[in-house]
Design goal:
The complex is a heterodimer of chains A (199) and B (252).
Chain A: H1 2-17, H2 28-34, H3 38-66, H4 72-98, H5 100-106, H6 117-129, H7 133-161, H8 173-188
Chain B: H1 20-30, H2 42-47, H3 51-72, H4 81-106, H5 108-114, H6 125-133, H7 140-170, E1 172-173, E2 176-177, H8 189-251
Antiparallel strand pairs in B: 1-2
Helix pairs in contact in B: 1-7, 3-4, 3-5, 3-7, 4-5
Classes of the chains: A mainly alpha (199), B mainly alpha (252).
């Protein structure tokens, strides 16, 4: 029971407090791209979840083995990139062999869901904050779910933010940034704010 | 014995389609990766909260991106893009190692403060997207100039955002206190998002204004030229008509 609670707690923390987009700006450009179409949100969301969770599981063992080495932080990106690349290649080969139709559909944007700041950022944050395998996986799940939620919010707002009511210069990316900023402010409140009045 | 003399093909001088002013503005303004296309924003939004951090991010970005793009330009195009991206990522991670060790020697505390946003530079869209859609379609010399200009576009905005945020958040510039006025909340991610959004909107407005003014000026110039041409043609017609009229007058 304690393990389950720890899992949920870590996942919720990653989803809302350490939200990939609103709190960390990880994969913002991919999120903007994905928010245009509903199919892209589902495709990219699933891709990021799959890679992040699986990579979190593998990186845990490398972190446990090499964490105390003085220069580990320098080669960490290379190791993580290699891990992600192996998972990506192996998954692509399996999909290509057994699900050729799906391979043809995802081929164009599959790299976006693998080589982006959200996946690698989640792995780096895991290394900084966690020591337990369960927490590693929970954090991976939470970050991916947080990314999915953020992109869904952006998708809802997308049409209105691109309306002719917005001045031409602010239409698209600039107003989207301001919108994400306001959402980020709302998510920032989830970390708690002490007014000092009660104390 | 046949003495077939092989004739060396003459080097053909290719006339490049590179136009310096147009392509320079492309990476700096029209397709600026932060303010116009928004494809590289995470380090600017979260980590560039001071002038010094802005400079360190810009340096790391410049070294890693330039060397990675240049090295990966030799990767054969026969390999499908879906797999080529793996090579790009690995090459980027390899160049990250000497870059971060060097920067740590010069700015030890700043590199530590930037944290995870330093290694995240290896996954920037300039390496993964812009290479395929632009850089690798150009000739090598043009590509080198283009990459430098794009990196300069990022660096300028990164340092400017860092300086601006330092002034707003702490009332200082490069660590030198300028004023007591400060809004520390702008150091948070939401401050970065809002500030960058406003900066992008203002930059675009200025860019559109200048572009429209140039178009208008060109139109006016073309109109004036057309009028001039018409006048000249009319004059030429009048001159051409004159000799015909003369003999008639003489007859009369």
């Amino acid at each position: 029971m304690d393990k389950l609670l720890l899992f949920i707690n870590t996942a919720m923390l990653a989803m809302f407090v350490e939200n990939a987009i609103f709190s960390r700006a990880l994969g913002t450009s991919v999120a903007f791209y994905a928010s245009r179409k509903k199919e892209s949100i589902i495709g990219l969301g699933l891709g990021i979840t799959y890679v992040t969770v699986l990579s979190s599981f593998v990186t845990f063992w490398f972190d446990a083995w090499l964490y105390n080495w003085e220069y580990y932080y320098v080669i960490m990106p290379l190791i993580y990139t290699l891990i992600v690349s192996i998972i990506y290649t192996a998954s692509l080969l399996i999909i290509w062999r057994f699900l050729p139709k799906l391979f043809r559909n995802i081929k164009k944007y599959v790299h976006l869901s693998v080589f982006n700041a959200a996946v690698l950022g989640a792995l780096f944050l895991n290394t900084v904050y966690h020591t337990d395998l369960l927490q590693y996986i929970a954090f991976g799940v939470g970050i991916s779910a947080g990314f999915f939620i953020a992109v869904f919010f952006l998708h809802i707002a997308n049409e209105r933010l691109n309306s002719p009511l917005i001045p031409e210069a602010f239409r698209g990316m600039p107003i989207m940034m301001v919108f994400v900023g306001i959402m980020s402010l709302a998510f920032y409140a989830l970390t708690g704010y002490n007014t000092g009045a009660i104390a | 014995m046949a003495t077939a003399k092989q004739i060396k093909p003459e080097k053909i001088k290719k006339k490049t389609d590179f136009r310096f002013t147009r392509d320079l503005l492309d990476g700096l303004a029209k397709q600026n990766v932060v303010l116009m296309t928004g494809i590289v924003t995470a380090p600017v939004i979260i980590a560039a909260t001071s002038f010094k951090k802005g400079v360190v991010i810009a340096l790391a970005f410049a070294v890693i991106s330039f060397l990675t793009i240049l090295t990966c330009s030799f990767v054969p195009k026969k390999i499908v893009y879906t797999l080529r991206v793996i090579i790009y990522a690995i090459v980027g991670s390899v160049y990250y190692i000497p870059t971060v060790l060097l920067l740590e020697k010069v700015f030890p505390l700043t590199v530590e403060l930037i944290g995870i946003y330093m290694p995240l530079i290896i996954t920037n869209a300039l390496i993964f997207s812009k290479t395929e859609s632009r850089f690798y379609l150009e000739s090598k010399p043009k590509m080198v100039i283009d990459v430098i200009v794009f990196i300069a576009g990022f660096s300028v905005i990164c340092v400017l955002t860092g300086s601006f945020r330092e002034m707003i958040c702490f009332g200082s510039f490069a660590g030198i206190k300028l004023t007591d006025f400060s809004i520390p909340a702008f150091e948070a991610p939401f401050g970065g998002f809002i500030l960058l959004g406003i900066m992008a909107g203002t930059f675009r407005a200025l860019y559109y204004y200048l572009r429209n003014r140039r178009i208008k000026q060109n139109e006016e110039l073309a109109k004036a030229e057309a009028i001039e041409k018409e006048k000249a043609e009319q004059l030429a017609r009048d001159i051409a008509d004159e000799p015909k009229q003369l003999p008639q007058n003489e007859k009369e």
